[in-house]
Amino acid sequence: MSVTPPRRKMRPPTPSLFHTREFKFYYLIYLTVVPHMMYTMWQSSSPSRPEYKKYKQALSDGWMFGRKVDLSDGQWDTFRERLWIFACAMFAFVALNRVFRRMVDRMDVDRMRGTLPQLWFVCVFATAFIVVLSGASIIFIVGLAWINYVVAKKCAGKRWAPLVIWAYNMAILFSNERYKGYSFAHIAEPLAWLDEWRGLLHRWDIMFNLTMLRMVSFAMDYHWRVRQDAEAGVQHVDALAVNAQTPRERVEHACFVSNYSFGNYWAYLMYPPLYLTGPIITFNDFVAQMRQPCVATSVRETVVYGLRLVGAGLLMELVLHSVYCVAISKWAHWDAYSVYEISLIGYMRLTFIWLKLLIIWRFARFWAMVDGLETVENMRRCMSNNYSLQQFWRDWHCSYNRWLVRYVYIPLGGRRTSSWNTFVVFTFVALWHDLTLRLLQWAWIIALLFLPEALASWFFNRPKWTSRPYFRFLCSMGGALNIVGMMVANLVGFGDAGVDKMLRMFCSAKGGGFLAITFVVLNVHLQMMFELREREYRKEYALYEQSVEMTAPNKTQSVSPQSRRPKSAKRA
Question: What is the tens place of the pLDDT at every residue in 116-132?
Answer without folding.
Answer: 888 999 999 999 999 99
